[in-house]
Amino acid sequence: MKLHLRALTIPGRYRVALMLLMPAVIIVAAYFLLFDAQLRERKRLDAEVKDLRQELLKVTTMKNNMEKTRREYAGLKADLQFRLRQMPEEKEVPALLRQVSLTARETKTHMKYFAPKEPGAREFYLELPFELNYTGSYHAIGYFFDGIRKLERIVHITSFSLEAKEAGQKGALAGSCLAKTYVFMKEPLPPANKGKEKGREEKNEPVRK
Fold first, then answer.
1. Based on the number of CB atoms within 10 Å of its own CB, is 25 exposed (0-12), middle (13-18) or buried (19 or more)?
2. Which residue from 61, 97, 152, 165 could staple onto 172, CB 3.0 to 4.6 Å apart?
């Protein structure tokens, strides 16, 4: 038995069409095999870069906010220290007496009497009233009060009096005043203790000069 094979013949017009289509088929195949994979990889990398930029922006914003917060914290801390010097957390009556006495000496006013009074509790601070007796010239006493006003610690003069001294002391005046300073309390007193100082431990005694 013999097999007869005939050569496959393609009509000429089909051969021309096939020759024209082959490059297109190769290009499409190359696109899907090479360029499409590269394009997908590029899109993935672009997405990663975008995410990284967003993360970088978040980190930069957080850093800027942290720097701003640090500056605000430093400012608040400095302000708190200044306020605590104006209104300390301790009575510091001896320190107050030294400041008042120094102011009196600097203004040539003679302080005769310094008497702390009973403290009065408020919601977040204590009022520490005290009484002063003094002598000096009109201008000296005026400078004395001005010096008290300029003390770093808050001192509020609530009332004062002046009167001429005995004959023979020309221009000399004598007077007294009531004043208040303040102590900051970290925690408010319970309602039952308002108006009373918590834990009174010592009695206030006047100081005579």
1. exposed
2. 165
Residues 104/110, Cβ–Cβ less than 8 Å: yes
Give the residues across from 146 on adjacent strands. none
Q: Which amino acid is at 141?
A: I
Fold (topology level) of 93-198 = Alpha-Beta Plaits (3.30.70)
Give the phi and the psi of residue 169 in degrees, each rounded to 5. Answer: -115, 80
- Please answer whether residues 195 and 98 qualify as being in contact, where contact means their C-beta atoms are separated by less than 8 angstroms: no
Residue 31: pLDDT above 90? no
What's the pLDDT band for 45 if we cut at 50, 70, 90?
A: confident
Cα 78-83-86 angle, rounded to 5 deg: 135
Query: What region does 153 belong to: left with phi over 0, alpha with psi -120 to 50, or beta?
Result: beta
- pLDDT given for residue 204 in this prediction: 53
- The SS3 assignment for 194 reads coil
How confident is residue 199, by pLDDT bands cut at 50, 70 and 90? Answer: very low
d(CA 108, CA 171): 13
DSSP 71-137: HHHHHHHHHHHHHHHHS-SS--HHHHHHHHHHHHHHTT-EEEEEEE---EE-SSEEEEEEEEEEEEE
